[in-house]
Specification:
The chain has helices at residues 14-33, 37-57. The protein has 66 residues and is mainly α.
Length: 66
């Protein structure tokens, strides 16, 4: 029987948290400034786009093995 070591440490999903915060804050800011449900949806979409741009441009990338 083989002894296998399982990785029990869970890493924090930083990209997912940034996307979630972008959507939430984009929606909240737009609902405070404009009011209503449609600006909330549009603000959430804009927040998602800004979060994606932030992740792809500003977040450091991991170096490749090869």
């Amino acid at each position: 029987m083989e002894n296998q070591v399982e990785n029990t440490e869970e890493t924090l999903n930083v990209k997912g948290i940034i996307l979630l915060l972008g959507v939430i804050f984009g929606g909240v800011i737009s609902i405070v400034t404009h009011g209503g449900i449609l600006p909330f949806i549009i603000g959430g979409c804009i927040g998602l786009i800004v979060a994606i741009v932030f992740i792809s441009a500003c977040l450091p990338h991991k170096s490749h093995d090869r």
